[in-house]
Design goal:
Layout: H1 3-16, E1 26-34, E2 37-48, E3 51-58, E4 61-64, E5 66-71, E6 74-83, E7 86-97, E8 100-107, E9 111-119
Antiparallel strand pairs: 1-2, 1-9, 2-3, 3-4, 3-5, 5-6, 6-7, 7-8, 8-9
Length: about 120
């Protein structure tokens, strides 16, 4: 088969079969510094299609994951945290790489924080 035909076949297959989403299903943990002190979190994720569900658990309580989605190796979701009677929206964007997720989380208009979650074995 000529090289041009092989190249076209490879190109066509990458367009027809997009990259599969990384699967974050399972339990992940992270410890990181925030504006209210060091936080220890456990995230429990479940992926169905591209929809992400689960919960975020910290020493401050538990929150259901909202608006969760995984596209390729990018994971996004929202946690609503109740602090002194006020609901605070925390938006997560992360990149999955094997057994690590490097997250940036935006805590309402108050702070942006970086953290790394590791898959629990």
């Amino acid at each position: 088969m000529p090289y041009r035909a092989v190249f076209m076949l490879i190109l066509a297959s990458t367009l027809v079969f997009p990259a599969l989403a990384a699967d974050p299903t399972g339990k992940w943990s992270a410890t990181f510094d925030t504006m209210i002190g060091q936080q220890k979190y456990t995230y429990e994720f479940k992926l169905v299609g591209d929809k992400l569900t689960g919960k975020a658990v910290s020493q401050n309580g538990e929150a259901e994951i909202q608006d969760g989605k995984v596209t390729g190796d990018v994971i996004t979701f929202v946690e609503t945290f109740n602090f002194q009677g006020n609901d605070i929206r925390i938006e997560y964007t992360g990149k999955i790489s094997g057994d690590e997720i490097k997250f940036t989380r935006k805590v309402a208009e108050y702070a942006t924080e970086e953290l790394v979650a590791k898959r629990e074995k």
